[in-house]
Fold each of these.
Amino acid sequence: MRTYLLCLLPWAAAVTAAVLQPRQDVGNVSLQHPELFSLHWQMLEQNSTSGFETPMVDFLSGYLEEKGLTVELQPVQNPILAYNVRRQNIYAYMGTNRTCRLIMNSHTDVVPPWYPPSDNDTDIFGRGANDAKGSIAAQVIAFLELQDAGVLRDGDVCLLYDVGEERYGDGMQTFVDSLTWKPEFIMTGEPTESFQATGHKGSININVTAIGETAHSSVPQYGRNAILEIMDFLPKLLDLTSTFPLDSFHGNTTLSLSSITGGTISNQVADRAMAVVNSRVGVPAKQIWDIITSQVGDVPNIYISRIGDSSNPLAMDVIEGWRPKKIMPYGTDLGAWTVDNLKFLMGVGSIATAHSA
């Protein structure tokens, strides 16, 4: 099977290069690999923000069925979302053997807000263009070309495209919980600039709540403004990055202020304010959390807690002597992949432009 893996991954990279590296004799990107461009473009037309991936799932599953693949749609339930929201993982393969040895994977959801695709003859723009619909397009076209070339056999490779990666992590967790066999390999597509990722960081989401005392806005001296409390606290929290340990493999640990809210109406002193801070950890998450709680865990009127489960840094497998290697500063669905097998991370696009307008 390793022979097939070595064959498939370079093929995917070569197919993707048609978009990443325009040929000198072809100006318009759509002419370089029409099927790849068309698939990528049509996926970008689907509004699939986290929690509402149905348009993308319907389109991609239909596309794969039209190409003759067996397609399973796995329901994904999330108690914090409306019960009538239809969310499904896509699992596709050749023939009838679903217990594949290699799983090619990425995610169908994107961060909000969605906006439609556009291009300038050399680059493609649109929400999810590189995170991660570009990787899906490359994987699917590589799979279909290898299938047409007679390289693949039933049970060699399956395609898994899960929901919720950007916000909930529930799609991959649902699939892992349902596994009844052990795949030998998983290859996840995320924006790595076509580097082989040697690893990526873990993550902690931190909720910060400030409690004040309400009063009429005409006499603010009789209250205590929670917004001012949290504005005073957040720089102290963010400055802790200078105290975090540096890992020689995964690198530094970062803190990023993701959101802040506070107050209710204009004529009232805010008695509550909240912020979310995301940490990308280069060392075990507990080590960072212990530093945070010991340094700023007892500030009056400020309460900090973790949102959901934290994840630790991961090391990935690589193919020696193939493509260049690089550590990645973010996390992926592989944090929920608890199967003891070979794990690869590689895809198109750059994290520098992921989640940006």
Amino acid sequence: MGRVLPLLVLFLLPALAQSAFAPLKDHPLRKQAEAYLLAAQKGLEAQASPLALNVQGNYARLSYTCTPEALCQSLPEDGKALTLALVLNPFPFGDGADALERARIALRRAELAYRRTLTALQAQAVAAHGRYQEALLGVRIAEKGVELARLALEAAQKRQANPQELREAELSLREAENRLEEARRGLALAQKAAEGLVDPKAPLPEIPPPQGKTPLSLEEARLNLAEARIGEGAALRNLLPTLQGSLNLYPSGNETLSLSLTSRDLKPTLAYTRQDPARQPTVIPNAGQYETKEELRLTLSLTLSPGLFAAYEASQAQVKAAQEALRAAEEQAALEGDTLEHNLKTAQSALALAEARYAAAQKALEEARTRQALGLESLLGVKRAELNLLQAELARLQAQNNHRNALMELYRFYGEILKEVAQ
């Protein structure tokens, strides 16, 4: 049993560490980002659908002028038609390829927005956790200050100090008590600020350095360039002629089978139409009549307009602007990355110094207690050493929090989500 308990504690440690970020799972901004991401995924699925079914119904009310008038009685009063069409999407091309690529870009943007949201939330959570721990330690320091001020007052009373010294000691005690009240209010405020972000009483997990891949701003700039190029291709396609082809078969006067295709997207459309009344044969006077059983139609259209040429030039300008924006983003990302790395190294140096000062304060407290055991140090001196140690501990905690915050800024820069937050 003695071996099982430590193993159980080690097994539970990761779960305990992950629980600090548990409030982020239900944060409204995270839910919003997840909803946008799901919408973008569904939009891509809609564009990538291999087929679509279309149903169309037509009704017409007919009116005639007949000579002789009796002829109108034999003509139909209305016309009805029902069309079932199947639109196939065997491969992306033209307008269809543009729509699919835009949906992919929208999904990628939603993913970047999701990463941006979560990295911002996790940075806020880490900062809030650090502020709470600092406030908690601040209360301990304030309590130690009250204890030290009370001992100083008692010592002044025992040695029958003059009235001025007693008044100063009493004022010092009141100031210490005021600082304690302020520290407690600060602790309550820090706990309230942490609500919905982090469990301030749970330990934070170990935060390793980020992997350092592509910055978020650079990925967004690349997406903008890709979208501008799609617009340029679509504008160029508007300047080209469009070829449309259709093959119609007429098995009977009431039925039509058709296959149509356009060069804009190369999506074949199969359609079946049932109409009433039936088509009548074409009558040639003094010769007879005939019925069309098959029809192949080709249509070539070309639109020339100054607006189309202007739109193409505008799309080229947008591509140029996106390229320059990408260059600017690369330069800015390089500078920002170097700055964040510099800040991290500065925080690491400050943390090492704070650790050394904390160790020195620990050593000073041990020496004060040793001198007290030998009768060479008063209780008041030991309490001062204890207060110095708490202040050194606060400085170390602040340095640790600054180091974590510098790490989290790098996580935001690269859009990297902690595994404890992503779960």
Amino acid sequence: MAPAGRLCCAALLCGALSLCSLRAAPRQPDTLYLWIDAQQARVLIGFEEDILIVSEGKMAPFTHDFRKAQQRMPAIPVGIHAMNFSWQATGRAEYYYEFLSLHSLDKGIMADPTINIPLLGTVPHKASVVQVGFPCLGKQDGVAAFEVNVIIMNSEGNIILQTPQNAIFFKTCQQAECPGGCRNGGVCNERHVCECPDGFYGPHCEKALCVPRCMNGGLCITPGLCICPPGFYGINCDKANCTTTCFNGGTCFYLGKCICPSGYEGDQCEISKCHQPCRNGGKCTGKNKCKCSKGYQGDLCSKPVCEPSCGLYGTCVEPNKCQCKEGWHGRHCNKRYGASGLSTLRPAGSKNRQHTPLPKRAEEKRVPPESNYIW
């Protein structure tokens, strides 16, 4: 049986269940828990992890719109004859249960559901198993409708949990004409091959088809219906239920988790990977690696770029702005005070450079008083 179909069975039997959690959370005192243990989960969904159904006295969110989802859920497959549920009351709190109805509406196909505990009693303080059985009569093929109505009360007699009103569940019973049986409304033909209804496929019609496909770990349990894991929602579980603020351009993709751009890390992308911040508008793109904006260079984008350069007699102080040494001026600090036009230096990097001898000290004394001239 497909994991999605098995999970659906668990949902149907509880009356309103979904994957509240796939992890065994720490038990809180004075409250109530109901879950499918790892061993039963392996039979239902193919891997061993506890599936929480009631956590801290509250049902899974699936109960809020159970009637709508129930209309689209398939019947419990042929291969599932009983299901085990575990429950426990923690601390000193007392909880009482009562099965109000265990009733088959198609007694020619299936007898009344069975349970392995009294119809009325106390929820045990030690983790215990409740088994619900589905006794197909084997007289005819078909889908049997049945009711399982249970309430749970606190010590004051107030109902705190119950199966949704008028909830009806379905069980497929089939004679062994097709090995393994046909599920989800499939019909075993004269060639002993399952003919599947629209939206299902597989040797036993055990696989549902969702278009678009379920994303982010969602399970397709019936055509067009995905069960989403915690933190996701949408028709195909494509949307994240985010309450976390992601900084520095991060994107929330899961409850409390952010996808960070390169150069940032942390739960909210609040930590830069550059130990020293990038300057002059540079962006951190990796560990101690900056991507500089136009006009700057260097590990921290702290060095301005002048094109052409400021030559031997100037320093680049801003993008394309030179600060000249004493006695020199010009945009590229290539002009000397008191020199004729023939002795003017060309910008660094130009062709056919002309060598100009350095001025003598005596000549330097006659240089005009302006100094540190910025063009």
Amino acid sequence: MTTFQFPKSFRWIALLALLPLTGCEDPQREVKLQWREDEVNKKEAAVIQREMALAKEKQVMEGNRLDLLAKEKSVASLQKQLEEEVEKTKRVRREVEIRQLRGPIPQISADRVIVIDAASDEIMFEKNPDKRGAIASTTKLLTALLVVEAGELDKIVTVEESDTQCSPVRIGLKAGEQYTRRQLLTAMLVKSSNDIAQALARDNAGSVEAFAAKMNEKCLALGLQDSHYVNPHGLPARNGDEPFSTARDLSAIAKACDVQPAIREIVKLQSYSFKWPNGRVTELSNTNRVLRSAGYCDGMKTGYTDAAGYCLVASGERNGKRRIVVVLNDTEGGVWRDAQALLDWALKA
């Protein structure tokens, strides 16, 4: 095998190429390069310092921002507390003024009572408002509400034999007689006739039992948990399933009636001329005596049974203020006195 060899002159050239070239560089250029490197390093260090200073400044600013937010939150909380205190002071001052205007709460003999502002639902006075018990013919307010909500008050109702089979008070309806719903509704609310209540219930729901179920459904719709109805008139049940309600629940039903123009127009009547099918007219005097003794009273409904005692739901208005009073389990003489005194007291302010 033949080996190729470079000439000696070529080998010296290669060795020279491997020698350092630094000795051939310009010294001034080296100095300039070093100066530039130093300047770059200085600027890098300055940038790093500035970045560190900026980060620290940002940290301080963030701390100041959080401190400011905390202070703003504290100021807002203090302002809210101040506003609440101002409102509380106004409310207390107003309550004091109202108490001074109304004077002391009347002394009453009724066992279950509530007085409400019909517009705001404010409870102005209460006594055993959630105590369950019989409510007698004030039951007919819920009967009236369902009848009015069904509409067609000028529709004819034909009396059936079952409508006439009830305890007094009765107006004396006879099977086959025909009246409008409005006639029957008016007579029921003015004179509290139980046979009329049964006729309206049967006309509305097909039977007294079906109507009672609708009454209880309405109570649930109104959010009432302490009421149970078994008939449209409030008389004691024959099967032991006794009806009951409370002053509070009854005030809610009264308020629902109070916004019905048809009911408002009826319950304020001091009397009503009931016309029989044969043309005879019977003058019915409203059982609510407070309508005649207090000009500010404009409704609503009376009631009495042994279990309920003497009852009255009374409504009234004066100087733009509207109130509803519920008085249950009172005495024969006390019911009128208590209801009128409470209504007058509540309407003073």
